[in-house]
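The following block was generated as part of the benchmark described in Methods. Ligand: coenzyme A.
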Amino acid sequence: MTGVICGTGSYTPAWVMDNNDIAKLVDTNDGWIQERTGVVRRHIIKDETTVSMAVESGKRALENAKVTAEEIDLILVATISSNVVLPCTACEVQKAIGATHATCFDIGGAACTGFVIAYNTAMVYLTSGVYKTALVIGSESLSTITNWKDRGTCILFGDGSGAVVLKAKEGKPYLPVTHSEGAKGMALTCKSRYERNGLTGASDIQELLSAEHFMQMDGQAVFKFAVKRVPEVVREVLTVNDVVQEEISYYILHQANKRIVEAVAKRLEEPLEKFPMNLQEYGNTSSASIPILLDEMNRQGKLKSGQKLVLVGFGAGLTWGASILEW
Ligand code: COA
């Protein structure tokens, strides 16, 4: 038994902050941000929340898959920026869409590897025969845990949500590869967990909290980690599954930074065209970046039946992992 993606959906907030808007908050400029990161603008919540975006992307994925909420056995939400600690975002999605038969839980700390870990978890349930249909969502309001006074991080992140519907199907599953290196966890940290609605309303909270309550990052350490580990894990997942690079149509990398994507393509000696990017529009949306990109490609008709894709997540923990899937 294996599992296949039979529908995708995404939601990104209407409010856009471009690099010039960021330059009003910290000492930076559009040219520097574009050159070092590739990011041009990011979508930021105003009235939305991690839950509301997850609900919307989930609904759109169900519509696209032509699957009803009652058919779903499992809802997984990958997020590091849930509205509240309890109840979990997945249960909130269940409530909103009426997926009364589903088992629901969040996958929290895997950060930017979160969607790949959630996808793998759902696949294990499907391939083992426990469940038949799963809704897997990545949803983040990173603006609520971003330090808008730190130019080393606030230029990078954005908000949004993406979702896929997975169905069990006869066939042999691909094995995923995942790794963690807790010893290097201090490269990307965040202490706080609190409710906040939008950037403007957060200014008082920002005053009350110290820098360590927001995401803090050793940018160069994270950059070096990514450009080393991502090509490694791609080669590993291909070897484990006896697949060669020529068979892969697209590498769907977590959308952290254009220079990381370019460095990975170079190290794998693959053309950049096989590495689709939308980080210029959304910035780094952590666990949401891969499903948002998948949804855009799906709706643009770029994904054809039978194509092989590699999904790669990497980020805080440190954690990283790759999965092969057939469209
Ligand atoms: N605007 C203008 N200048 C900036 C700046 C900004 N937003 N941020 C830093 N600088 C300055 C620094 O102060 C430094 O100045 P100095 O040379 O006078 O000391 C200079 O630019 C270079 O800083 P550095 O930190 O070495 O830049 P960098 O090339 O490493 O780029 C990142 C910084 C964050 C863009 C880069 O390290 C990165 O992308 N890292 C990976 C981050 C990531 O993807 N994280 C998520 C993974 S899931």
